[in-house]
Amino acid sequence: MMNPAHLDLFRAVMRHGGMTRAAASLGIGQPHVSRAIAQLEAELGFLLFVRGHGSAVPTREGEAFAREVERTYAGLDHLHAAARQIRELGTGPLRVACQPALVSRLVPSAIRRLTIEHPGVRVAVHVPSPDTIWAWAASGQCDIGLVRPRSGHAGVASEPFLTVEAVCALPKRHALAAKRVISVEDLAGEIMIAGGPGVFQQAIEDTLAQAGIAPLFPFMAQYTAARCGLVAEGLGLAIVDPVASRDLAGLPIVLRPFRPRIPIETVLIRPAGQPPDHLTERLIGLLRAERDGLVAERGFEPVGR
Length: 305
Fold this sequence. Notes:
By secondary structure, the chain is α/β, with parallel strands linked by helices.
């Protein structure tokens, strides 16, 4: 059985980028950290880091193991938080895990309406990674999840929630900004800002490849707000989620429809095998109402909803 203390030290080395820095941050000796990592590697049967001149660069196996460790610790962190809430408040709140695109307006608006109907209701909103949202729903650690589709997760009830078409974000003074619609052919030779690894970014790259366009992605930003911020600085163009990008009205960018169409899907998930309680069911209804209002207000063209 793995030593939890060794896993804590492994996370510290990953976080601080080296064993010496990790040891200094924890107030312990560097040899202690090195021995713990060596013991963990021996137990795992593969190297976690490439050592050299005070640095510790994770191997591919180390990076993969780190992702699994963080998923485990995310669940443990949530359990610790839930225990604290139960201890301090008696019961835990309604738990919503949401992707960033919907967390600025749609989810808060639905929660506001819920509090009007049920004064005193408590809701906790989390914005973890998509894989974590799926894992939390499967293990019952969240009541509602709004997330990009994934496969291979048992124990989750899923329903389509919203599918919109990606748009192209451009600096206001860019030559292509005069066009009403941006086609993939327009992107030939253009600097692009990539999103984080995932289904959406892969769809963008596949679209470019099918058009015979070599991708130019010197910059990457995980979230839409960050990509649009880089666009505003004139660093490139980005294919983005229209829901999140249209909340950034203060930036000097324009949004144009993109062709061929790239759908961006969101599903609503919850733990399977147990019916939602009254408050969860009501919040789901309010989320659907906010979604319908968003589609009507912004003029989105929902696909396959």
